[in-house]
Amino acid sequence: MAQTDKKFFENLTGAGKAIAVLTSGGDAQGMNAAVRAVVRMGIYVGAKVYFVHEGGTVIGSARCKDFRTREGRLKAAHNLVQRGITNLCVIGGDGSLTGANLFREEWSGLLAELVQQGLIDEEASQKYSALHIVGMVGSIDNDFCGTDMTIGTDSALHRIIEVVDAIMTTAQSHQRTFVLEVMGRHCGYLALVSALACGADWVLIPEMPPEDGWEEKMCQKLSATRSRGSRLNIIIVAEGAIDRHGKAITSSIVKDLVVQRLGFDTRVTILGHVQRGGTPSAFDRILASRMGVEAVLALLETTANTAACVVSLCGNQSVRLPLMECVQMTQEVQKAMDGKRFEEAVRLRGRSFENNLKTYKLLAHRKPESELPHSNFNVAVLNVGAPAAGMNAAVRSAVRVGISEGHKMFAVSDGFEGFYKGQIKEIKWADVGGWTGQGGSLLGTKRTLPAKHIDKIAEQMRKYNINALLMIGGFEAILGIMELLAARGTYEELCVPMVMVPATVSNNVPGSDLSIGADTALNAITDTCDRIKQSASGTKRRVFIIETMGGYCGYLASVGGLAAGADAAYIFEEPFDIRDLQSNVEHLTEKMKTGIQRGLVLRNENSNENYTTDFIYQLYSEEGKGVFDCRKNVLGHMQQGGAPSPFDRNFGTKIAAKAMQWITKKLNESYRKGRVFANTEDSACLLGMRRRAMVFQPVVQLKDETDFVHRIPKEQWWLKLRPLMKILAKYKTSYDISDSGQLEHVVLRRPKESEAMAAI
């Protein structure tokens, strides 16, 4: 897009403005990244930026009793006016943000009182007459209405899942039941999503207490799981879990219940403050960086009449919402829970929470055969292309939702290669138990495309009477579904509903902002970069050149660079030459002279055929002589391996469930005269995340959006994040704000049944 077509940030200026940033309340991983983003973006626009100390975080975080009194707020107002600060960026939970809004509402009265006491003059009172506040929600509980995710939640889920994965191995060894208590005094998000991410047998949360008689039902479920051959049970309890009468359900109560009624060897693990600690996940670093920059933009665009707002995340897009609307809705949740209106409480939590709960119920609790619908449809699931962490969670979800909808589910081993060879077998509910946390592809996957074997694939479709196909994979999957679509005219067996779910570490599938596996790869890159940078701690100045995967897609290098605090990231989509390399070396040289000891440069593996990783390493080594030395690392397939991140488990689970529900709908629509026949464009779709929602897009419509030579989409949303990385690395650059959030209102709508799985 030409520069004149974009709304650039250069039109807005922070010159002469002062911004104060503070973290308040409980700490949350990612707060530091938010503070860094506010400070560097503020400096970039010419504002003067202040820390409010003791406000976990690098500037300290505290719950201030003095600020709850008017006298304390009067002192705070005096401190701000003395420094000319009228822009406040508050990072905290609903209590901190409510307090900040009260401070804003009292501002004119506080200034009048300061004038009366002779602490400031009338001129200062007029000059600093308006206080502008923008909030960012930092809370591991994800208990704030209006945003899909709060800063710190994803990192807390990482801590929980790390513990669950470790516990599962010892539980299997001893055939034990483990009861895990996680944080969430008033909100069950952590318990619910960790239960979804590890396939827990039972979960107890405050928003949806179990029905009376739950004790017997839970014990029956645990016993049934053991009788099917499982050697362990996992029960997750939120610390605020209650029954229908408001009585607390503690982890020790649950343990005693299991021991007394079933005699199972049972242990309790209370995670406690482990969930608050540790390094932030890649997701939280990126979220916090995006939110921090958005907060500065929001402050610069405020007028005297602009209401205090909070920067939120909706799907994959930043939005601004009136702070008090969000706070009031958050308070309504508690009122609904206090009034035992639990379904209303779940609905008020938002579509993401509501759909997490629906999905968990769908996958964890198997209905008796007598209650299942009988569709007589056969649905095949296969993985296509390279393995990606989260594929197994998607398969498990698809299989269990399919069975719940009355279908007979078939697993195809080794992708299209296994398909034409007849490596197809029925897969049952219990067969996918424990798959959620497994890395790689348990079904097996190959890059083979179907075109050369289309006749044999059609033969297998006929042999097994396959009525629908679900493909989970990367760019090969979209090529595969296109080839099957092209062959429909020749083979009627292929005239069935087909849907593809994107799963690739490269995140290069057109039609979706995100792919299963990309978050796990980003965490692998971020963790490795952290360790590599730490290896130079206390030594001489050093620059690390890191090569990432991705083919021609620069997503991992760019977004990984943003998460790891890189100084530069070289990608194919943004051509560079020797002058750019020289400029980057000079920039790093200047930074090193200011006392910074470490530099980080990422390079996508196919960014340039001549400027290779070796070339860049040698260039930096030569040009940096006397200032810094260099090391290089090629991360390779470690980006594809490992257990899936909580995000990928959750994303894979919910997107596959939604895909299966679409298949059921299409099967019913296309069943005529005793058979399934679907040959319309919308019967072969890709299910992807586009900005705020999950969208089904006919594959034929994606052809024009795709660069087939380089296997990337022609338009990629994350390219707009690249200037952000440069700004945070202290480069002078232009920042496109055409996609920045606009002030909206909190809307609570009842989702239609067809949209029931829309949110992630």
From TrEMBL:
Q: Which residues form the signal peptide?
A: none
One MF annotation (Gene Ontology) recorded for this entry? AMP binding
Q: Which residues form the active site?
A: 141 (proton acceptor)
Name the residues that bind substrate.
Answer: 139-141, 176, 183-185, 239, 267, 273-276
Give the start-end ranges of region C-terminal regulatory PFK domain 2. Answer: 378-760
**GO-annotated biological processes:** canonical glycolysis; fructose 1,6-bisphosphate metabolic process; fructose 6-phosphate metabolic process
Binding residue positions for beta-D-fructose 2,6-bisphosphate: 447, 504-508, 542, 549-551, 605, 631, 637-640, 711
Q: What is this protein called?
A: ATP-dependent 6-phosphofructokinase
Source taxonomy lineage?
A: Eukaryota, Metazoa, Chordata, Craniata, Vertebrata
